[in-house]
Amino acid sequence: MNNLMKTAAGTFMALGMTLAGTATAQNALPTGRSASAIENGVYPASYFPNTEILGEDEMRITALGTGMPNQTKAAVSISFYVELGNGDVFLFDVGTGATGNLFSLRPDFAKVDKVFFSHLHVDHVGDFMGLHVGGWLSGRYTPLRIFGPSGSEDELGTKAYVEGMSKAYAWDLATRTGALPDEGAKLDVTEFDYMQENEIVYQENDVTIRSWPAIHSLDGSVSYSLEWNGLKYVFGGDTYPNKWYVEYAKGADIASHEAFLPPDALAPYFGWDMKQATYVATRVHTEPAAFGKVMSAVEPRMALGYHSVLSPENYQAILEGVRSTYDGPLTLARDLQVINVTKDQIVVREASVDDYALPPAVSDEYINAPRSKEKEPSDKVKAGKWDGYTPPPMPDQ
Prior knowledge:
Helix content is 27%, strand content 22%. By secondary structure, it is of the alpha/beta class.
């Protein structure tokens, strides 16, 4: 190991990381667990992260966040994590609080390098900074790729958002660059026209992701479909019921779409009057009965509703609204709900995670990725070091 790598190894410890030699993220299972294939289509009642080998023709969708902007411990803001049997992974939105649930899955962060924004509300992009820096700390040694819509003006688009955010935490990035892989600090933004209809925004490794407009607050919201290996997942983002979703979500195995609280449940939840609650629930979002109408038109293999806090009374209000207009397969998503999808079956379970899960071990590729010069305080700041403490000597590696 050269001098730069010796120094970097010491700095990893200071930044809260442990180098794991030749261990890779792929085999960094918790002690006492081993990964095995699902046999004969029979799944355990609960999903324990990294203990199941995803089938080569299988898709797994995990709800990282399903709640509101005023998140709760059990319902953080919106994010869905999609894993494919070819090894690819994708994030759709990364709302405030969602990265905590992502880290509890202990993924291979070298692969968690693609996120698709539906729009720029904080409950859909609020954990962007945590994803960028946290993933970089935990194994990603390449740029984070962000895909998202333009806005009606340049400053309201995805590119402006990412540039502004990265300036806001420039100090953080500057301190870590050199100790962590240089490329991991970078951001690669693909901004596309929010009005394009079912056009391709991503196509690699036999995966095709398309976007179409959504109707929400201002211009600049979109929905997505992901197609791979004959399977189709649709992510609605936030939207009023619209013709594009009804048309382009057809053929979905999993069609996810917000099923917001109805006005009479939303008003007491937020302490609003009925006028404000009705406007938000039925003009800005999609209330449950409207969600049901959309799903009756789309006819997916499974309808997936989200964007609420499913307390007992809220759950009942949403379920009754949906079932008044839709009688097909339905899941009202909760955080850390896991959906395995094959051409033969759809299995819905809950993930069982450790509240104190450690980050996964990093790969040799991460350890050996190029790093520039380490940063340190100026001499005038270092002159303030207290002479009552002497740090231990640095190890060789």
